Amino acid sequence: MQLRDDFVAVTVPATSANLGPGFDSVGLALGLRDEVSVHATTGRTSVVVEGEGAGHVPEDEDNLVVRALRLGLDHVGAPQVGIRMHCTNRIPHGRGLGSSASAVIAGLALARALVGDPEVLGGDALLEIGTDVEGHPDNVAPAVLGGATVAWTEQGRPGAVRLEPPQVFAPVAFVPDFELATSKARAALPPTVSHHDAAYNLSRAALLGALLAGGGDSAVGAVPAGGEGEHPVRPDLHTLLMEATRDRLHQEYRRGAMPQSLALVDWLREAGLAAVVSGAGPTVLSLETVPEAVCADARQAGWTVHRLPVDPHGVRQTRG
After folding, report:
1. Looking at 81-208, which runs of residues are DSSP E strands?
2. What is the CA radius of gyration of the chain?
3. Under DSSP, is residue 280 helix (H, G, I), strand (E, B) or coil?
4. How far is 217 from 2, CA to CA, in rounded Å?
5. 313/194 Cα distance (integer angstroms)
6. For residue 35, which phi and psi values (nearest 5 degrees)?
7. pLDDT-based confidence at 227, cuts 50/70/90?
8. pLDDT value of position 281
9. Residue 192 CB-density burial (10 A; 0-12 exposed, 13-18 middle, 19+ buried)
10. How far apart are CA 184 and CA 257, in angstroms?
């Protein structure tokens, strides 16, 4: 297979995974995008990085986007070429906003754009190769599909479905000035959990999926309106979202690795906001609109605050 173009460009959204109980399965595309362009050349590979990671990420064949692009060309049997790449990075690195998944999907999409054949490297291939590189499909799926996604693997093959969240989902990201390696966050997890905790998370994850798909209008049952002994009320969408973002599988186990993040989650939830750790952290994500006064307090405490709408689009080709 030959290359049909020598200059292409793509843009890929940031993603958040887990969203509380949806460990390694639920993801969300966010309105913060990296942009990457490539010139196919006969010379040596070079990479220019602006924004996040500038001066730190590799600027040669070791760059993750370049490596993913090479995988994509190999996958379709296209020739390898020299690369002049330009990256405008807006997604923070090492913060739990899917920067590595976005880089991998960007590289694969660039390979597809260079080949110029819509029949190769489609969504299935992007999800499968991306998951092979990342290890889990939770961040990969929303980078490919946009919106909200539920992903899984079966016998090593990933699958995902896309959901269309209602407007009540208005994410706000609280990004710290420190990084946390996913491997360190994952190392804090125990090898087993109790059946009780597994069942607890299963019900909340199912509820979260229903809300992400636009459900919740026909909720029945009752929850306490306030303190102990107060008369219960029928749950509204906000109350359901607070319940749907409870977790017992990973967040509390990771408190020692990122105490500031879990303290912020506690503070936001006590203020009545559906806050969770974004991915493996240390970014904290509120799934609902956050009052400006709360954002100001968080900024005063050293957090960078981004209001990031749910991005309905996954990776998009912009040139070529």
Report:
1. 82-89, 148-154, 157-163, 172-175
2. 20
3. coil
4. 52
5. 37
6. -120, 135
7. very low
8. 94
9. exposed
10. 8
